[in-house]
Amino acid sequence: MTERTNWLKEEVQNLKDQNLFGELPVMETPAGPRIRINGKDVITLSSNNYLNFTNHPRVIAAAKKAIDDWGFGTGAVRQINGTMTIHNELEKELAEYKGTESSLVFVAGIAANRGTIQALMGPEDAIISDELNHGSIIDGVRLTKSDRKIFPHNDMEGLRKALQETKGARRRLIVADGVFSMDGDISPLDQIVELAEEFDAMVMVDDAHGDGVLGREGRGIVDHFGLHGRVDIDMGTLSKAFGCVGGYIAGDQELRDYLTNRARSFIFTTAHPPAIVQACREAIKIIQDEPEHHKRLWDNTKHFQEQMKDLGFNTGRTQTPITPVIVGEASKAQELSKRMWDEGVFVKPIVFPLVAKDMSRIRANVTAGHTKEDLDECVEKFAKVGKAMGLI
Ligand SMILES: *Cc1c(COP(=O)(O)O)cnc(C)c1O
Q1: Helices marked H in 312-370 — which ranges?
Q2: CA-to-CA distance for 251 and 157, rounded, in angstroms?
Q3: What fold is seen in the domain 22-55+292-389?
Q4: Is 364 helix (H, G, I), strand (E, B) or coil?
């Protein structure tokens, strides 16, 4: 390190002094419901591996075969000579699954959000965004010079007001998470679409936590509400329920055509390796021909959440496998997480600025990979720790 970067030492120390510094927890095992992390065997409730596809034998086999058939890397960006037939096949199959004309896969969900919002929206336009939207949407908005309006979370009167206030814009985009990752609640996409139609605004939904979870065979929030053909930009990720990696945009052919030429996070990055592409294709097939994973996810969610509510925990407004356990002050959430860790359950505390100061929580994600016994063990530990801390 040169002296010019000494300031970094101070900044890191500042973070530590303010109790804002996080070390990266390290796993010594594959990702699954039971992992060894930071040297300890635990049940994890902190993963987005909703369908437990990270270790599905068919996903693994597809990736291995892809390496034999296609080699490892792609060596170029999609627009030059990085696109293989399998990249296009994945996009066709994904579009079919999502019920759109076409789709485009980005290297990650964050790249899909950044590149798409940046490409679509100019200085004459306005973006209207839910206050609890994901950081990658906020990044995308920041990459534009568009006018921006933030509406209160899921507040349709607030959205209407923002639409009225932006009538002068050339084009407008309403953007919202489909499932909000800190509370597990769903956006009222049916009402958003109605308002968008009334005010002639485009709609973009981020289905990162809805993919593989909501709708028939996990087709997502558009399917959940039966809004096919009425949502302009259906964004999602292959990194969570599908257990792989990648983000995508599903919509009309023209949307794909435009983004392949204008989305900087698509244009300036190397194409996904074949192993990833084939793993993603397999995951999309599995969710359709092995319905038990999706069913188990929801059975497990019900099993876990009912017991947590019966114990008297405040699980907020969740409608999905994301289960917040709201405790109030940050120190309580940190203590709950620490005590659960001591009991062999890995759940992370979520505090300000991710949530309001008096709404600190831990967030427990149920997956299809958990057995009923795993979940009962977690509930039992929550009961023990919750009583000891006076939470229930
Ligand atoms: C995780 C997440 C993303 C980013 O997806 P990656 O594929 O992990 O980059 C985008 N939006 C939301 C709402 C997310 O939860």
Answers
A1: 330-342
A2: 27
A3: Aspartate Aminotransferase, domain 1 (3.90.1150)
A4: strand
Q: Is the CB of 130 under 6 A from ligand 1?
A: no
Note the pLDDT tens digit of each residue in 218-233. Answer: 999 999 999 999 999 9
The CATH number assigned to the domain with range 57-289 reads 3.40.640.10
How many contiguous H segments (helices) and E segments (strands) does the chain have? 14, 13
**CA 93 to centroid of ligand 1, rounded, Å:** 21
Question: Tokens in use for 214?
Answer: 């909501």
Tens of pLDDT, residue by residue over 240-272, are 999 999 999 999 999 999 999 999 999 999 999
Q: Which atom of ligand 1 is nearest to the CA of 134?
A: 13
pTM of the model: 0.97
Instruction: Tell how far the Cα of 116 is from the centroid of ligand 1, in angstroms.
Output: 14
The domain spans of the chain are 22-55+292-389, 57-289
Tell which atom from ligand 1 comes closest to the C-alpha of 110.
9
pLDDT digits (tens, 9 = 90+) for 83-113: 999 999 999 999 999 999 999 999 999 999 9
List residues with catalytic annotation: 181, 209, 240
210 in contact with ligand 1, CB cutoff 6 A? no
Whether the bond into 353 is cis, omega within 30 of 0: yes
CA of 114 to the centre of ligand 1 (A): 11
